[in-house]
């Protein structure tokens, strides 16, 4: 151990007397520790929320979605579908026809999002964990079925057990005057409800139906779709497949990953995380200002010791390092304590769910957290920078003592 570090350690850990400066050092250490712990926990919660949203989207949305750049629909010819299916990494391709429609059940009605999907949609097995009641069934023995969201069931009081009461879907015909009194103004289809699913509130108005039913209802041609949903093989490089699909599909359509479809939400989470991190950084800075006052008072108290050190041959750089090390000890001990407590809290929350969401309708019971080493590293760098900034001036003042 070199001399500046040894002297700084003696100043900090001396138990011979507990002066006001000693208690101020402890207060500074606690302030840095609490700020560090809060920063680790809050950043981990934001990471958990981001990961939770990805898991929610993965339950309903495809890995890749091909949609038209202009308009609501485009022509998916057999040649195009064959070319896309032959792209390396593609596991399953599902044509989709989706639009808003009106649903009626007995005397109740509500606006829905009707999503017509190909028969291979159920092979994706995305809804397996989201089914609340009934079966995952879209077509059997010539009968068309619908899988509805929990919100639709609540709005229309639908019972999947009642197979005799159909769900009626209405969609306005093109070129017809919109009027509820005109029976020819709407295309109509009837479906038997086979099951109910629940994922999250943003999907509470969806009704899944066979693709042929949706095309007839919307007035689409045989090969017309609103999008093509693609599932990839596990471990596939998404960026590489995305470029290959875009080249195969042409310039009239847009290939987007699941993250691309929800980029606004992820951007909002990132901005909130950044603003909260900046706020907590200022709190740590405010706590570190106590280090400035602690070192300034320590310089005044140790003027006689500093003169003796100069008389013994100490240089200004050595004296400066003593007080910089003193400030570093205060900050790093507090930061390390806060880091350990923050990581421990996150691990306990992740494993045992200590703090609940407090919402009955929440899809999870406790706040999601996810630790990232980048956040821990960023926190350590931030504390070091703040320590240097707050300790430099008192250390320089000690070095200039006459």
Give your account of this protein's structure.
This protein has 402 residues and is an alpha+beta fold. The chain has 2 domains: 3-58 and 265-399, no CATH class; 71-251, no CATH class. It is built from 11 helices and 13 strands. It has helices at 3-13, 20-60, 78-85, 150-156, 211-218, 238-249, 258-261, 263-301, 303-311, 316-352, 373-399, and strands at 64-68, 74-75, 90-105, 108-117, 131-134, 139-140, 143-149, 167-172, 186-197, 206-210, 224-225, 227-232, 253-257. Strands 3-4-10-7-9-8 form a 6-stranded mixed β-barrel. Strands 2-11 form a two-stranded antiparallel ribbon. A hairpin with a 2-residue loop joins strand 6 (139-140) and strand 7. The radius of gyration is 32 Å and the shape is elongated. The chain starts with a helix and ends with a helix. The mean pLDDT is 84. Its main location: membrane. The chain crosses the membrane at residues 20-46, 274-300, 321-345, 376-395. Residues 278-401 form the ABC3 transporter permease C-terminal domain.
């Amino acid at each position: 151990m070199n001399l500046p570090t040894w002297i700084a350690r003696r100043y900090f850990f001396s138990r011979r007397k507990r002066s006001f400066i000693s208690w101020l050092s402890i207060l500074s250490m606690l302030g840095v520790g609490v700020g560090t712990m809060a920063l680790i926990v809050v950043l981990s919660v934001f990471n958990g929320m981001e990961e939770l949203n990805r898991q929610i989207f993965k339950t309903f949305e495809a890995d890749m979605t091909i949609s038209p750049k202009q308009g609501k629909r485009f022509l998916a010819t057999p040649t195009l579908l064959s070319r896309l299916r032959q792209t390396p990494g593609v596991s399953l391709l599902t044509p989709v026809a989706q639009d808003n429609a009106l649903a009626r059940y007995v005397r109740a009605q509500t606006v829905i999002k009707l999503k017509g999907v190909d028969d291979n949609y159920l092979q994706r097995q995305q809804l397996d964990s989201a089914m609340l009641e009934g079966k995952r069934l879209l077509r059997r023995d010539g009968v068309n079925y619908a899988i509805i969201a929990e919100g639709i069931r609540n709005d229309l009081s639908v019972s999947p057990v009642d197979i005799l009461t159909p769900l009626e879907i209405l969609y306005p015909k093109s070129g017809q005057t919109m009027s509820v009194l005109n029976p020819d103004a709407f295309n109509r289809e009837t479906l038997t409800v086979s099951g109910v699913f629940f994922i999250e509130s943003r999907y509470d108005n969806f009704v899944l139906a066979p693709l042929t039913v949706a095309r007839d209802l919307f007035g689409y041609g045989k090969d017309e779709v609103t999008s093509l949903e693609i599932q990839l093989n596990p471990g596939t490089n998404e960026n590489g497949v995305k470029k290959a699909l875009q080249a195969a599909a042409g310039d009239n359509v847009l290939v987007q990953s699941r993250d691309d479809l929800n980029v606004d939400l992820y951007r909002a989470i990132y901005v909130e995380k950044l603003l909260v991190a900046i706020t907590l950084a200022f709190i740590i800075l405010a706590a570190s200002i106590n280090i400035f006052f602690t070192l300034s008072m320590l310089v005044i108290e140790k003027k006689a010791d500093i003169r003796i050190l100069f008389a013994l041959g100490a240089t200004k750089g050595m004296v400066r390092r003593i007080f910089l090390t003193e400030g570093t000890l205060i900050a790093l001990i507090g930061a390390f304590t806060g880091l350990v407590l923050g990581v421990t809290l996150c691990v306990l929350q992740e494993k045992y769910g200590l703090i609940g969401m407090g919402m009955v309708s929440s899809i999870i019971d406790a706040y999601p957290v996810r630790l990232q080493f980048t956040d821990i590293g960023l926190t350590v760098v931030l504390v070091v920078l703040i320590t240097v900034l707050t300790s430099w001036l008192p250390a320089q003042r000690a070095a200039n003592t006459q």
